[in-house]
Amino acid sequence: MLAGGAVGPGLPAAAAAPSPVQARQPGTGHLFRPISADDEEQQPTEIESLCMNCYRNDMNREVVKTDSATTRIPELDFEIPAFSQKGALTTVEGLISRAVSGLELDQPSRRANEEAMAERIDEFIVKLKELKQVASPFTLIIDDPSGNSFVENPHAPRKDDALVITHYNRTLQQEEMLGLQAEEPEEKPEEEDLRNEVLQFNTNCPECNAPAQTNMKLVQIPHFKEVIIMATNCENCGHRTNEVKSGGAVEPLGTRITFYITDPSDMTRDLLKSETCSMEIPELDFELGMAVLGGKFTTLEGILKDIQELVTKNPFTLGDSSSPGQTEKLQEFSQKLNQIIEGNMKAHFVMDDPAGNSYLQNVYAPEDDPEMKVEHYKRTFDQNEELGLNDMKTEGYETGLASQR
Q1: I need a surface site. Which of 186, 212, 368, 392 has the fewest CB within 10 A?
Q2: What CA–CA distance (Å, rounded) separates 105 from 196?
Q3: Rounded CA gap, 241 and 77, in Å?
Q4: Alpha-carbon distances, residue 21 vs 44, 46, 48, 238 (angstroms)
Q5: Which residue ranges of the chain lie beneath pLDDT 70?
Q6: Which residues are CB-contacts of 35 (< 8 A; sequence separation ≥ 6)?
């Protein structure tokens, strides 16, 4: 609230005319009218105000000045800063008298230590006292960012031409000064792009239990979705693992991808296998169930080599207890798998993921791949049971909770 008023020449306060606010006569024998709930004509009681400085009715304009208000008189280049005085209900004359008292308070010590400064302040005090006599017009400006200061309009409800009230928006510094804002807000920091960040956290090696670090990165797969890749490399035993987690939820439909391998270049296609994905190679009469090999983000060649290593290095199928016929079959399987990897044998590679979170790169994207067939299907009850979806109630559960209460 910014209130400024020009005070013109006139009589001193002691010689001014009677107050327009007269004491209401409450009744014989009573200073105030008796308060009663049955009195429908109950009105506020008005009494004359008394100036505690001169003990007379002070007729100057009433002023409410809060702690946060700055008071200025431009003609004297005089200013009372905010929070240098306590808030007060006073008058224009009272504000000036208060300023005079504040300046005179330390004058004795100034005269002893800084005589020249004390003389200048004495001269300024004389000018302030002359304002109280209104020897010449002056302007009083009260600038209060809290908006709670007030200067009386004696002509209310009519407009007072000598009083100007201006409302404004507080600055950030004023908000901070009033305690409405702890500190000036800093520039909004840029959001972290986790796709360009590799996060690390401490863990233990699953093989030797030595301290190791796992790297985690969020990757956006083109024409698919975001996935989380976690890789662990143990410096103690050299064990290396990588694991992939889907960045999204279970898809509404399952996905079955059938790819016909016809060229060695097909081995470089990116492949994402989730933990819920099963794989099949019909030409080799081979099928690998879900959860085997875990989640992986690799290439088609990489997943085929993982399958080959899983079969050929399995001690339960190639150990001392294995039969000769079984060993020959597995060796034959490994040889045919090598032929597929080297491009000497054509075969179909099938990925079936009821959760819909597996992916095989389409090098023709966004066009269709002539060698790839992607089917979306509705899951069976058994597939939902394996995924734990049958026990999840995602609709109408509020009603069930309400009935339990």
Answers
A1: 186
A2: 66
A3: 77
A4: 13, 7, 7, 96
A5: 1-57, 59-60, 181-196, 220-225, 245-249, 314-324, 393-405
A6: 42
Q: Which of 98, 89, 87 is nearest to 146 (CA)?
A: 87
**CA atoms within 13 Å, Cβ hemisphere of 2:** 8
* Positive or negative torsion for Cα 31, 35, 36, 39: positive
Farthest-apart Cα atoms in the chain, separation: 129
**Omega cis (within 30) before 366:** yes
Encode pLDDT of 272-325 as tens digits.
Answer: 888 888 999 999 988 888 878 888 888 999 999 988 888 877 665 655 656 667
* pLDDT score, position 260: 94
Count of beta carbons in the 10 Å neighbourhood of residue 11: 11
Q: How far is CA 76 from CA 13, 94, 161, in A?
A: 21, 17, 23
**E-state strands within 99-233:** 138-143, 150-151, 163-166, 198-204, 211-220, 226-233
- Residues found in the chain: 405
